[in-house]
Design brief:
Layout: E1 8-11, H1 15-24, E2 28-36, H2 38-44, E3 50-57, E4 64-72, E5 91-94, H3 98-107, E6 117-119, E7 123-129, E8 135-141
Parallel strand pairs: 1-4, 5-8
Antiparallel strand pairs: 2-3, 3-4, 6-7, 7-8
Length: about 140
Amino acid sequence: MPIKLENVGIAVRDIDAAINFFTDLGLSVLGRDTVSGEWSDTAVGLDGNHAHIAMLQTPDGNGVLELFQYLHPEAIETEPTVPNQIGMHRVAFSVDDLDAALEIAARHGCHPLRGVATYEDVYRLTYVRGPSGIIVMLAQALQPG
């Protein structure tokens, strides 16, 4: 049976702030909608499910994020995840210029958890705390390829 990854879904506190962050990094909005109704309740497993959603695509066309901001039931605030916590860990992006990406992230109040690391001679990379506490990995290849 063939399988294809469709998207990664992330619940956010403020969908507009999250869209601004990810579009500034280079993703584009494929579409926005508000969803609710029996089909949505059944698919998601929440009674009265009502949410704003946005689909964003990476410039290469291969990656899609689905952002959603719950209107009902009320979103549940949790502590931001840490890298060794079980569950959804992070979303990762390759960038051509890590320093430029970090400048963009900083304009959104998003900064590295610790700093920028170099993995052998392969990548410069870091984790930043993005909107709604999302961990976002940014990595720049050091060798063309």
